[in-house]
Amino acid sequence: MLELLLVVRALAGLGPLVGDDHPASTSTYVGYLFASICVLPIAMKSIEGDRAVWSSAVVAVAAAAIGVIAVRLEMTA
Asked: Hey, where are the domains in the chain?
């Protein structure tokens, strides 16, 4: 399910790049878009075999980072 949501996020993020209203800084926008679809899978892969207390903290930090990246993505669009 996570992979499907990331594909939807990536496709929705490509809208401003193919539309008439391009972002002011295309490289920054693409960087934020790439980060928004890569951070959570990397965090999930890093805790795959580890079920310690800190595993939840890693996922929480990654989720917070996704929120920050989403706001920055909207600001650059």
From this structure: 2-76
Ramachandran category for residue 25: left, alpha or beta (phi over 0 → left; psi -120 to 50 → alpha): beta
pLDDT in tens, 4-58: 887 888 888 888 888 777 888 888 888 998 998 889 889 888 888 887 888 889 9
**Structure tokens belonging to residue 43:** 């965090």
Helices 26-46 and 2-13, interaxial angle, to 10°?
A: 170
- Neighbouring CB atoms inside 10 A of 14's CB total 12
Q: How far apart are the first and last CA of the chain?
A: 26
